[in-house]
Amino acid sequence: MDERVGPGAADSRHWKVLLSVQRALLGTVGPNLRGVAAAWDGDEVRVVCYFHGPISDVDREEMSVAETEVMADFLDIDMPEKMNGQGLRAWVFLRKE
Predict the structure, then answer these.
(1) Are 94 and 58 in contact (CB under 8 A)?
(2) Which pLDDT does position 95 carry in this prediction?
(3) CB burial of residue 78 (10 Å; 0-12, 13-18, 19+)
(4) Helix (H), strand (E) counts: the chain
(5) Average confidence (pLDDT) over 27-51
(6) How many CA atoms lie within 13 A of 34 on its CB side?
(7) CB neighbours (10 Å) of residue 36?
(8) Residues 71 and 79 sit within 8 Å (Cβ to Cβ)
(9) Contact at 8 Å (CB) between 13 and 44?
(10) How confident is the model at residue 19, as a pLDDT?
(11) Domains, the chain, ranges and CATH?
(12) 3 state DSSP class of 16
């Protein structure tokens, strides 16, 4: 198994989070997006995006749209105002470098 997937691969929440974030990123990934990591614990989902260089206004808007799409997939979860944090469980997207 790819170690970047992380623990809990059999957990249904694991797959729901990863697929939600991947779907939300479709058509939004620009060349400066280096990686996207996700974490989930109980009722909390966190996503962090890593960019190369300054984050453009277009990149911010694209990630805001993706954030909204992920939030819509988890209406049963009390989402924080911003999807950020540390201690992430799995990479959702990782640019080939």
Answers:
(1) no
(2) 75
(3) exposed
(4) 2, 3
(5) 89
(6) 8
(7) 23
(8) yes
(9) no
(10) 94
(11) 12-91 (3.30.70)
(12) helix
